[in-house]
Each structure stands twice: as structure tokens, then as C-alpha cells.
């Protein structure tokens, strides 16, 4: 299972570079979906531990490449309406709920060994749906300015942006790793735990539906600081007030801020700052450095806190990470150059010319 995090750090950068270099992101998504599905089929060979490790490495190398490329394709397709990204992204959350409910229900009746057979048609469906997306036509590849990617990545605001998201995912380490265990220790049953997980995703969907209104009224910095503060409150509530159901429900509703709001503004921020030459690599760095490296570090550190103290201590550690992220974001996060006068990318529905 750790190979998923490993390839999530490496694979997006490789495929993002290929996408920026070739301009054929749709074709790369199709190739990744088909090849990833074929490698996943290796689980049916029952290859043993090391064989399964190789299957997971190969499968996830292609699989983790798809989402960052899809983000770029989606934003380019939306064009000047990119503030409506949330209305597209919410379907991923709907799919998550459907898979948890559907597959979970089926596994009540059939052995867990049938899980790969249930997943394979889903992977095949993703591969088929990739062919429903029109190919990118007429995209003229121009040479990017020499050294421009390094200049972007080392920009103080971009460094702040990645630090903010890295710490955000570090703080989510206890949540994704120990939330169910934490609830069990406080007397919650499996049904209650499942409903609380689902509630967080439902809140995320609701936020995606109205996110375009927030991006028109507030700057990315204002949204980021507000969402980070609410995320810190969320971890404090889960750590200290787990026994109060109403408080826990409220904490789960804050998933709309801790994931939905911050992810929505992040993908748009990358498009504005990295521009057309490096958009794919920007999304890849966002995926690898935050969801990959940040998630892995968060899970690792939370394990020490759980072993040494308690699950509540792990969530308090997440709150500390958020406090640090708030300070860093307050001091360093700024809009991309060229967007500071009118801020069209964040305060209105129009597109920013700074993306190029």
C-alpha cells in the first residue's frame, strides 16, 4: 500500500513533463488509463508478496499520472469559466460516495476476494470515458523560456503555496489513517463511522457547488487563510470533543473547508502561476509534494503520536501543523504577478491574462 504514496510523488512529475512537452494530454490520459488497468489485472495471477509489489508499482505509476493531467485538461476546457471547476470536480466526490456505498454493500454478500473483479470494470469504464474526451487539436507547442520553471518554483509565493498545501496534507495524516480507530475508541459503531465519513464528502460536494461564488467575492489568500483556520478548529474538535455527536457532525461538515475550498483554489492558482508552458508540471508538483509527500509524512508522524500518546494527540498535532500553515500563508501567499491590479482570477469570473 505504501507504493501508492511513493508513485504519487514520482509519477505525476514524469507525466506532467510529458504533457507539457508534447501537448497531448488527452492521449496520455488514455494511455495511462488503459496501461494502468492492464497492470492492475496482474492481481488475478496471485503473484505473491513481491509479485504483487511489482504489480502495485506498475499499476500506480500509470494511475497516479491521470488525475493531474485531467486537472489541466479540465481547466483549459473551462477557459474563462474556470471558477466553475468545482461543479466538475464534485462528480469525483459523488463517485466516491457511490463506490463506498455500492461496493461496501456488495461485500456484505460476497467474499472480499472478489474485490478486484468489482474494481476492474470501474477501471475499464474510466479508460472508455477517456476516449469520449475530444483530443487536443491545434495546440502549437512553443519553447518555454529557458529556466522559467525554476524561476516559477523558487518564487516566494509559490514556495509558500506548496508549504501551505504540504502542511495541510500533513495535518490530514491522522484523519485518513486513524479517524475510524479514534471513533471506535470512543464507542462509535461501524455504521456511525461510515455515516460520518460520508458526511464529510457530502459537505465537500456542497462546497464545490457554490465555490465559484466565493472565488468571485474573495481573494485566494482570504479563502486560504479562512479555510486553514477552520481546518485547525476541525482537528481540535475531533481531538477534544469526540464524545459529543453534534460537535463531531459539525467537525465533519468542515471538510468542505479543509479539502474542498483549498483544493479548488489550488488548481486555479497553479494554472495562473505556472502558465501554459508548465501547467502540467505545476499540477504534478502539487499532487506529488502535497498529497504524496505531505500525506506520507502526516501518516508517519501521526503513527508516532498514536503509539506514544493517543489518537487525540495525533489530531492535536494536525492542529499545530495548521497553525504553522496559517502563519506561513499570512506572511507569504500572494496572487500571481499581473493579477494583483484587477485580480480577475480570484475576484471575478473572468480569466486572468497572467496564466501565459
UniProtKB/TrEMBL annotation:
UniProt GO molecular function: lactose binding; lactose:proton symporter activity
Upper classification of the organism: Bacteria, Pseudomonadati, Pseudomonadota, Gammaproteobacteria, Pseudomonadales
Compartments (UniProt record): Cell inner membrane
Keywords linked to the UniProt accession: Cell inner membrane, Cell membrane, Membrane, Transmembrane, Transmembrane helix, Transport
Domain Major facilitator superfamily associated: 1-316
Transmembrane stretches, start-end: 28-45, 51-70, 90-109, 115-133, 153-171, 191-211, 218-238, 244-265, 285-306, 312-333
Domain of life: Bacteria
Any GO CC annotation of this UniProt entry: plasma membrane
Stored Gene3D superfamilies: MFS general substrate transporter like domains
One Pfam family recorded for the sequence: MFS_1_like
Bilayer topology annotation: Multi-pass membrane protein
Entry protein name: Major facilitator superfamily transporter
Amino acid at each position: 500500500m505504501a507504493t501508492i504514496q511513493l508513485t504519487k510523488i514520482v509519477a505525476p512529475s514524469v507525466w506532467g513533463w510529458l504533457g507539457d512537452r508534447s501537448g497531448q494530454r488527452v492521449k496520455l490520459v488514455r494511455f495511462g488509463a488503459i496501461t494502468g488497468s492492464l497492470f492492475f489485472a496482474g492481481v488475478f495471477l496471485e503473484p505473491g508478496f513481491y509479485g504483487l509489489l511489482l504489480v502495485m508499482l506498475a499499476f500506480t505509476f500509470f494511475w497516479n499520472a491521470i488525475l493531474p493531467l485531467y486537472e489541466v485538461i479540465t481547466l483549459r476546457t473551462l477557459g474563462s469559466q474556470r471558477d466553475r471547476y468545482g461543479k466538475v470536480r464534485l462528480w469525483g466526490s459523488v463517485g466516491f460516495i457511490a463506490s463506498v456505498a455500492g461496493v461496501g454493500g456488495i461485500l456484505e454478500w460476497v467474499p472480499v476476494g472478489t474485490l478486484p473483479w468489482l474494481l476492474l470494470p470501474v477501471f475499464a469504464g474510466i479508460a472508455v470515458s477517456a476516449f469520449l474526451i475530444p483530443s487536443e487539436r491545434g495546440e502549437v507547442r512553443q519553447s518555454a523560456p529557458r529556466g522559467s520553471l525554476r524561476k516559477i518554483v523558487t518564487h516566494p509565493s509559490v514556495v509558500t503555496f506548496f508549504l501551505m498545501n504540504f502542511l495541510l496534507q500533513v495535518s490530514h495524516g491522522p484523519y485518513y489513517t486513524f479517524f475510524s480507530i479514534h471513533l471506535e475508541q470512543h464507542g462509535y459503531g461501524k455504521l456511525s463511522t461510515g455515516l460520518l465519513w460520508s458526511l464529510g464528502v457530502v459537505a465537500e460536494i456542497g462546497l464545490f457547488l457554490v465555490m465559484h461564488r466565493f472565488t468571485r467575492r474573495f481573494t485566494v489568500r482570504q479563502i486560504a487563510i479562512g479555510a486553514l483556520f477552520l481546518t485547525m478548529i476541525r482537528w481540535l474538535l475531533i481531538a477534544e470533543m469526540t464524545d459529543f455527536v453534534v460537535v463531531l457532525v459539525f467537525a465533519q461538515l468542515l471538510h468542505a473547508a479543509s479539502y474542498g475550498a483549498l483544493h479548488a483554489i489550488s488548481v486555479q492558482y497553479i494554472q495562473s502561476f505556472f502558465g501554459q508552458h508548465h501547467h502540467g508540471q505545476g499540477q504534478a508538483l502539487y499532487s506529488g509534494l502535497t498529497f504524496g509527500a505531505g500525506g506520507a509524512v502526516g501518516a508517519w508522524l501521526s503513527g508516532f503520536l498514536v503509539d506514544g500518546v493517543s489518537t487525540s494527540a495525533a489530531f492535536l498535532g494536525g492542529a499545530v501543523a495548521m497553525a504553522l500553515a496559517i502563519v506561513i500563508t499570512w506572511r507569504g501567499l500572494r496572487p500571481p504577478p499581473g493579477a494583483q491590479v484587477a485580480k480577475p482570477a480570484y475576484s471575478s469570473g473572468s480569466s486572468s491574462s497572467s496564466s501565459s
